[in-house]
Backbone:
């Protein structure tokens, strides 16, 4: 799941049918490299979703690595819970972590791949001191908290800056993008340097999610 393994499609279950979650995941799994799981607490973002018990159920339902995005306050309290539930990648928000370096160390110590998410108004420069500690950076191309939002074009410049920093410093973190990813926005994101593309409503809102996943995967690898 590193940059060396190529571009990855990461379906976001936030937009899936929760009444048939396992079936929804299995439909898109053949075209995917990660399964993106949004965790919200109703405090850091104005919505509440799911937690470690659902992650543990997903772990039993799919072989895809689980990419858990913690949109929560005090994420350090729950790192061990997500590790035990089966998370492979774990991203925390720069804005929610006053001791970010320590948090990233703990994520790795728990056996997960550490990442940091950046809200649309948070600059790439805020990660300068920890880029070497990261396996991936998650660029939010919508404001976090809800699915189905419109893509914020300024995210493209963030992706370009991260790619330039990665090359200049000889680092290997992946650049992940979440929010408004679709067949329309994908070409610009790939040109900017994105590696992992999170797609929610574009996939699960389609008439045939499997066919749409195949189409997006083809664009990634074409």
Residues:
């Amino acid at each position: 799941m590193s940059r060396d393994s190529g571009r990855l499609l990461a379906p976001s279950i936030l937009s899936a049918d929760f009444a048939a979650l396992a079936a929804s995941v299995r439909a898109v799994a053949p075209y995917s490299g990660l399964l993106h799981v949004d965790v919200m607490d109703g405090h850091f973002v104005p919505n509440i979703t799911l937690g470690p018990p659902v992650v543990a159920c997903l772990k039993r339902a799919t072989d895809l690595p689980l990419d858990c995005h913690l949109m929560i306050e005090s994420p350090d309290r729950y790192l061990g819970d997500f590790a035990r539930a089966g998370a492979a990648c774990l991203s925390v928000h720069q804005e929610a972590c006053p001791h970010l370096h320590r948090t990233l160390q703990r994520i790795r110590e728990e056996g997960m791949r550490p990442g940091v998410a950046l809200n649309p108004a948070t600059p790439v420069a805020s990660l300068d001191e920890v880029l070497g500690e990261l396996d991936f950076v998650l660029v939010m191309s919508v404001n976090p908290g809800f699915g189905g939002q419109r893509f914020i074009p300024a995210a493209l410049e963030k992706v370009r800056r991260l790619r330039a920093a990665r090359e200049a410093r000889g680092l290997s973190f992946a650049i992940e993008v979440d929010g408004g990813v679709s067949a329309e926005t994908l070409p610009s994101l790939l040109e900017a340097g994105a590696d992992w593309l999170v797609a929610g409503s574009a996939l699960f809102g389609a008439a045939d999610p499997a066919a749409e996943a195949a189409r997006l995967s083809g664009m990634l690898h074409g």
Q: What stands out?
A: The chain has a mean pLDDT of 93. Residues 155-169 form the longest helix (15 residues).
